[in-house]
Each structure stands twice: as C-alpha cells, then as structure tokens.
Amino acid sequence: MASTEKTLRDARSLAEAGLVAPERLPALEAVAARYAVAITPAMAELIEPADADDPIARQFVPASEELISTPGEDPDPIGDDIHSPVDGIVHRYKDRVLLKPTHTCAVYCRFCFRREMVGPEGLSNLTPAQLDAAFAYIAGRPEIWEVIVTGGDPLVLSPRRLADLMDRLEAIPHVKIVRFHTRVPAVDPDAVSPELIAALKRSTKTVYVALHANHVRELTPAARAACARIVDAGIPMLSQTVLLKGVNDDPDTLADLMRAFVETRIRPYYLHHHDFAPGTSHLRTSIAEGQAIMRALRGDLSGLAQPTYILDIPGGHGKAPVGPNYLGEGQVEDPAGVRHPYPPRD
Fold it and tell me: Is 132 among the catalytic positions?
C-alpha cells in the first residue's frame, strides 16, 4: 500500500508513490493529458500495487484503455447539455434541478460520466455572475422543490462558500430539499470538519448527503467516522454506487458494500448502470449481468440493503429502473427462480 501526504495529480507522482510501474509512464501520461488525475492520500493508502486487479486502483489509477473509444460512447452520455438552460443548472425533471457550482473533485474516477467536463480542458467553477443566474433560475420557478448540488464534488468547496450557497437557497421559499452528491467523506474524511457540517446545517431546508462509494474497502474506519459526524448532526445520508467490471460486479462484493452502508447509517439508494462515457468500455458490464446480480441480492440480502438498479437513458431521456422483472402473465417468480401462479388458483 502507498502512503502519501498529498493528493497525487499526475502519472509521474503515481510512479514515485509506487502505484504504477515506471515503464507505464508514457502511456499513462497520454491518458492524464486528456483526463484529470487525482488520488487522495486516503485512497492511495488503500491501493495494493501488487494486485493487478485491485478494485480501488481500477477506480482511480489511469489505464491506457481510456484512450480507446467504442461505439455509442459520448462526451455527454446522459444528455446534461440539452437540459441546461443556464450555466451550472440541469433541469431534466420538473420538481428538481442539478446545481453544479464547481467542476473540481477531490478524486477523479476513471469511469466518470462527466469526465470531459472535469478534465484538463474541462469547465471551470461558476463565476459570481453565473451563480447569480443559476440562483435566479431556481428562484423564478416555483415548481422546483429540490436542488441537487453536484459537480464536480460540491464538498471540495470551502465551508464559507457552502454557507453562502445555503444562505442563497434559504431565501427561495419553494425549495424544500437540498441534496449534496459527494465522495469526500470516503476519499478525504478529514475534510468533514465541524465547519463544513455547520455550513450544511445553516439553512432551515431539509439537507441530504448522498455518498458515492463502489467497494466496501472505501468505507474505512475514518470514512465511517466522517459519515457518523454528518448523520449525528441530523443530516440523513443516501448511497450511490456505479456497477463496474472488476470492481463490484459480483453479488458478494456488492452485498458487502450495501451492508456496510446500512451499518454506517447510509440508506442504499441507487446502483447505476455504467454510462457510455468515452474510454470506459473496459469497466462496463451488460445490463443482463447487472440484473443477474440484483436477482442474487434479492434472495440473500436484507431489504434494508437493496439499492435500485438504474439506467440513465442515453440522450437525456432520464432514469429508468432496470432491475429484473419477477412478474409474468399469470405467474410470479421467487428469488430462487421458481415460478408460482398469481393470482393464486384454487
């Protein structure tokens, strides 16, 4: 395992930390020139360099396969752009919007569906004028009940900036729910400070924090303690996970992760089917494989730990649940695959 004191941000730093072999540098430098690299000390510590299939490395260490494009891949795979009326806003569903104040992350995932936006040539943080326009858009539409703060990762912002964001949302009466999507509690647990939590609690709005984690090893004791600080402050937490080949594409691995979420007082929420982001085919499973995993989980895993398997339809058409169907014409299938008549017959 590597031990570092600062975030690793280029291929050479990864080699110096012992996370990649020096002979891989030319190929990985080409990847890093296109897609951003950042691995925090907390995540670098978890990587087993001797394991070619290490699930943490597969998420964060660049791979030469990222420069290979396959059919169907798109720089905007879920159609954010066509639902973006002003900079920093995505309004796909009537009662909620995404607010993206920053396109910076604590770590950069190799499978990110917004990787073209957060890369070296990607988008910058919103300017004050752009933020004003985004908040004006939200304030002018009373149907907006929930604001989902994403990016990038909004919890990389300073507590002062988060407090300002919450103050501005507090001033919009029809916004009732504010949800933050983040990796920070797992990848940089020390950043979940009393000041950050106070900023999230500053408003009278109901606040949720959705944690993105894909493997149980990410929920270290420090990560669980960071989540406890959030939950103990009265902020409920949800989970988001991406189904990834070689990371979590088997029932036992996913079950371990979902149980760990529940143990950490995080409600399992979404298991995302991997989007068609450029250069990510080596990490993509099929929907059939995902459905088979969900069938296995349904039979053996507590209902408290069941996520919804979801597909973001390419082209901006929204999310659809794609879990297996147990109900057929006049019959229902149990978790073991045995079919029974329904309604029951005399």
Answer: no
